[in-house]
Design a protein that fits this description.
CATH superfamily of the domain at 154-248: Periplasmic binding protein-like II
Distance between the termini: 34 Å
CATH architecture of the domain at 154-248: 3-Layer(aba) Sandwich
Number of helices: 12
Order of helices and strands: EHHEEHEHEHEHEEHEHEHEHHHEE
Helix content: 25-40%
CATH topology of the domain at 154-248: D-Maltodextrin-Binding Protein, domain 2
Shape: globular
Radius of gyration: 19 Å
Number of strands: 13
């Protein structure tokens, strides 16, 4: 096998690990039975998620929900409205925002009670489906609930006067683009949008060091290090930069089901029904919270 420290395994490496034929690994992928991601058409398997998947499938007595106590942490993708609401609602939950895929990883390893996610599902046109396909694969068999938080406008952050006249993904060819870490939903979305336009990451001048947050994307554009970067409208407004809307995405909360009924999450959802919350969403811009609370998936 390849370097044991590499975070992603190939199909052959997974087959060797599980002592199965590669054909059986493909069957597990097709059934949604093993965590995986597709990167430019190639199947890759996050090592830590595969190990967590193996641990979950150990035979033991007792229910899955009582297997491991979870820390009061919210992971996944950063969202300005969620970050603010967690504090205003006095939930007592700590945050460690490392990207949508990182949030699902933390959920799989029992390192969080909730994760924010905005992952475009594969196999459908961008914008048709969000998060559920990824949750089914990465958290197969786990008792999690996917609850809609907000619809957000995602697009290109550009300088205030948009000097390059960018109007869509096609305009990024050979332009300096500040990307996100591979665990971020924005990186997954950028790849999808490029593919939909017959483009590849190599068609853009992707800056080597990725932005860890959307605020870092805005900063790179503001100081001239990048011509553009993918982020939500609210961040462009906050930094008084230009914005080219591309897609309305759905940002969901992936919640450990038992935690959904406990005080911290209940406080958050109750606060999200207040006028103060609705006013904040309006001030930030680019949010549609009319579907907040809709359950899009309820695991076994």
């Amino acid at each position: 096998m390849a370097d044991s420290q590499h975070p992603y395994l190939t199909t052959k490496e997974v087959a060797d690990l599980l002592r199965l034929k590669e054909r059986k690994v493909y069957d597990l992928v097709a059934d949604g039975g093993i965590p995986c991601v597709r990167a430019t058409g190639k199947l890759l398997f996050p090592r830590d998620l595969v190990e967590a998947w193996l641990a979950r499938n150990l035979e033991f007595k007792g229910g899955t929900e009582s297997l491991t106590e979870r820390p009061p942490i919210v992971g996944g993708s950063h969202d300005p409205l969620l970050d603010w609401s967690l504090r205003e609602a006095e939930t007592g939950l700590a945050v460690t925002f490392g990207g949508s895929l990182d949030g699902l990883r933390r959920m799989a390893k029992a390192e969080a009670v909730m994760a924010g996610s905005h992952l475009a599902d594969e196999g459908l046109a961008v914008g048709q489906s969000w998060n559920v396909g990824h949750v089914r694969r990465q958290l197969a068999g786990q008792p999690v609930v996917v609850i809609e938080w907000a619809r957000r406008v995602q697009g290109l952050i550009v300088p205030a006067d948009n000097p390059l006249g960018l109007s869509g993904i096609e305009g990024l060819k050979r332009r300096k683009v500040i990307g996100r870490q591979r665990e971020a939903g924005a990186f997954v979305l950028l790849e999808r949008l490029l593919v939909d336009r017959g483009m590849k990451l190599t068609d853009i001048a992707l800056i080597e060091a990725p932005a860890r947050t959307e605020a870092d994307v805005a900063a790179a554009v503001a100081d001239g290090r990048a011509d553009a970067g993918l982020a939500i409208e609210a961040v462009a407004r906050q930094y008084r930069l230009g914005f080219v809307p591309l897609v309305q995405e759905r940002y969901d909360l992936v919640v450990w089901r038992r935690s959904a009924f406990e005080p911290p999450v209940q406080k958050l959802l109750a606060f999200a029904r207040t006028d103060a919350f609705k006013e904040r969403a309006k001030q930030l811009g680019g949010y549609d919270v009319t579907g907040l609370g809709t359950i899009h998936y309820n695991g076994p």
